Amino acid sequence: MSTTLVIGNKNYSSWSLRPWLLLRHAGVSFDEVRLPLDTPEFRDQVGRWSPTRRVPVLHDGDLAVWDSLAICEYANERWLAGEGWPAGVAARAVARSAAAEMHSGFGALRAQLPMNLRRQPRGKHWDADADRDIARVQGLWRELRSRFGAGGPFLCGRFGIVDAMFAPVCVRFRGYGVEVDDTARAFMDAVFALPAMREWEAAGLAETERVGADEA
Fold first, then answer.
1. Is the pLDDT of residue 142 over 50?
2. Sign of the torsion formed by the C-alpha atoms of 137, 181, 73 and 66
3. Could you give the strand order of the β-sheet that contains 57-60, starting from the edge strand earlier in sequence?
4. Do 162 and 156 meet the contact criterion of CB atoms below 8 Å apart?
5. Would you say residue 80 has pLDDT above 70?
6. Burial of 54 by CB count in 10 Å (0-12 exposed, 13-18 middle, 19+ buried)?
7. CA torsion angle 38 42 47 48 (round to 10)
8. Which residues, in sequence order, are CB contacts of 16 under 8 Å at separation 6+?
9. What local confidence, expressed as pLDDT, does residue 16 receive?
């Protein structure tokens, strides 16, 4: 049964990064289809892959699973034997809460600091709403690391779904020169050191498509 993950540009697509990183880090074998965002190619082809006309979407045989968090949950059951979440009940509950908050919240952070692997810091241009999002993210990271982070450098020790959900934020914080605390810096360093993350970055930086995020 073939498995295919359909994604957007690696340079820009934060939603695509999350399940791709989880699958690649876990050693799950899959084919990749990349559809460049905001292009005629995307508009022409996305409908054959995604019922929502959005990416990412995972095809596992005849089954289609869309939405980044849903794909991660499916992968956790299908290939990861449940190890995508921490073993402890409390740690799982808080990690799921943090992942869900990332999935549905932080609108100012998303809008004002869009993911762009090529971006280099060139001065703060975001507002107080984004600052509140930035502070909240770092507060979540401190809570997870202090309560459940023993045994590894990631939010709950070993790498899992919650880390994949926040990986694009690491790209945002680095690219926009966000001031971070020691806990955030250590977590970001651990994410960027992952071989799978290095692979994604190299491919993203090699892409030639450019959209408005390059001017942000």
1. yes
2. positive
3. 31-34, 3-7, 57-60, 63-66
4. yes
5. yes
6. middle
7. -170
8. 7, 8, 9, 10, 55, 56, 68
9. 97
Residue with tokens 């990183």: 21
> Quick one: pLDDT band at residue 215, thresholds 50, 70, 90?
very low
The C-alpha torsion from 111 through 112 and 115 to 117, rounded to 10°, is 160
CA 36/CA 18 separation, integer angstroms: 17
Q: Give the C-alpha separation, 14 to 21, whole Å.
A: 11
Angle between helices 161-175 and 68-78 (to 10 degrees): 140
Inter-residue contact 150 to 157 (CB < 8 Å): yes
Phi-psi region of 48 (alpha: psi -120 to 50; beta: other; left: phi over 0): alpha
DSSP secondary structure letters along the chain: --EEEEE--TTT-HHHHHHHHHHHHTT---EEEE--TTSHHHHHHHHHH-TTS-S-EEEETTEEEESHHHHHHHHHHHTSTTTTS-SSHHHHHHHHHHHHHHHH--HHHHHHS---TT---------HHHHHHHHHHHHHHHHHHHHH-TTSSBTTBS--HHHHHHHHHHHHHHHTT----HHHHHHHHHHHHSHHHHHHHHHHHH-----GGGG-
Determine the residue type at 12: Y
